[in-house]
Structures are given as structure tokens and as C-alpha cells.
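Hi there,

I know you've been waiting on this one. I reran it after we fixed the sequence typo, so this is the corrected version. Both the input and the resulting structure follow.
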Amino acid sequence: MKHNSQYINSVNLNAGTDFPYLVMEIINEQSYPRNPGFQVMHWHEDVQFIYLLEGNVTIRTLYGNTDIQAGEGVFINKNVVHMVEHEGCCHYYSFVFPDYFLKFYFGSPAAGFVEAITGNTQLLVYAFTKEQPWCLRILDILRELIELDKKKTEYYVYEVLVRISSVWLEFIKNITLSPGKKQGALGERMQEFLKYIEEHYAEDISLENLAQSAHVSKSECLRCFRQSMQTTPFKYLMEYRLLKAAELLSTTEEPVGTVAMNVGFRQTSHFGKCFREKTGYSPREYRKRAETSNL
């Protein structure tokens, strides 16, 4: 099973610009803009839509999975911990943007139509299949967004805003919303585990440390990871450390040994071995490739 995901609390690459709208194209293992593609759950403060051109995709959250196939799309709510998985050939577009795009202006009555969805803890992910006419209209608009990104005009920003507002209008008019409910124990515990790893990955983390972060036993910690992510805490931690290392190699000039220490590896040789097994490249080779791709 292949994964395309970033680290927990993933930041919109266009955050801080005057138009924080991010379009990512993912083809098999490559993403544009570039993404290391490690097996790490993540979340973002923005909403996300995906349109799948080829293959099959699974959106995994802490509470379940949602599958879509070519020609379908999916909505991922803000602050939902998730990762996108695929097997075999895959090609999709991801659209990420802040929900205030949909509110028009501060104090707008339209805000209620946005928060009815973004504030609903029951609505984590929603698939747009080809069976429903209103879903087909949303899928048509997502395809239009793809074409707009390929052929940007001087009206690009306005054309995007009009279309994402149209997507939201179709969504809010047709979806049946249930009252938000308290999240289950498994999801709450996983939130604590992932938060602890995010804050302490550079340190020596024991299974006991991790279990204590959610006030559970070591065996319960292991069970939670197996049930929600089909992995072990140690494997997830290693994946997270390698992801952070890839980010440092791509964005800084720190020596490889320093990078290794900063992400929790105590031996540079062990770090190099793990990094090559994951990426197919040595840390230095990976850095050179990153520098070349950014030219």
C-alpha cells in the first residue's frame, strides 16, 4: 500500500500569501508542488477537496476509511487527522484553502452555512460519487478547477472563488447534517499519541512515555495503533523522523549528522541506512535532488 501524506499539522504551502489557495497534483509517488510522501497522518486548518482522475484512493482517518474511484471526489474537513492511501497507478488533484474564502466578509450571514459543516464533528470526510446528480455537479466544478489551474488567466483568482463557492452551495443544499457528537475513545487517544510524537520526536521516546501521554497502558497503546493505523508506534515514529529529516535536507544546509541528531537518530550511519531504505537515496543524494528540483 502506498501513501501520500505529510506530517501532523500540515501547513498550506501558500499560507501567508494574499491568496492561500493550494492546488497539488499527485501522480503515483510524485506530487507537485513536491511532497516527500511518507506514511504519516496529518491535519490542516484548511478544508480540502480531492478529485481522482485515475486509480483508487482511500482516505484513512482515526475513525474509519472512505474509498473513491476514478471520476469521483472527496471532501476532507478542517482539523481532521488523515492520510491519503493508494495502491497501483494513481492520479489526483487536491485543493486546499481556508474556510473564510466561503464566508465572503467578516460578520457575513453566509458564515453559518460554512460553520454548519466545518464545525460538525461527525462530518470528517464526504465522498462525491457518480450516483447522485448533485454530486455530479460538484465533480464537474472540480474538473473546471483543474483546467483553471492549467491555464491561468488574469481573472484566475476570481474564477476560483466563484467555483469553490458554487461547490459549497451544492454541498450545503444537498447534504444531510447530523448533530455533532463527542469523538470516541480510540480517536481521542490517537490524537494524544500523535501530538506527543509531534512534540517529542527528536527525543528518546519509549512505549511507556507514549502510553502515559494518553493515560493508558502500553498494551492499549499498541492496540490503538494497530486498530487505527495498522502499524506500531515505533514504525510510525521512524516514519515521522524520516519525514522531518527530508524536510531539513530540502530546506536547510545543516550537515547530515546534525540533521540526524535533530530528528532523533543518535548514529549518523543508522540514519543513513534507514533513509536510503525509505527513499532509495542517501541523505546527500536526496538533498542534491531537492536542490535540482527547486531550480
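Quick highlight: The radius of gyration is 20 Å.

Best,
R. S.
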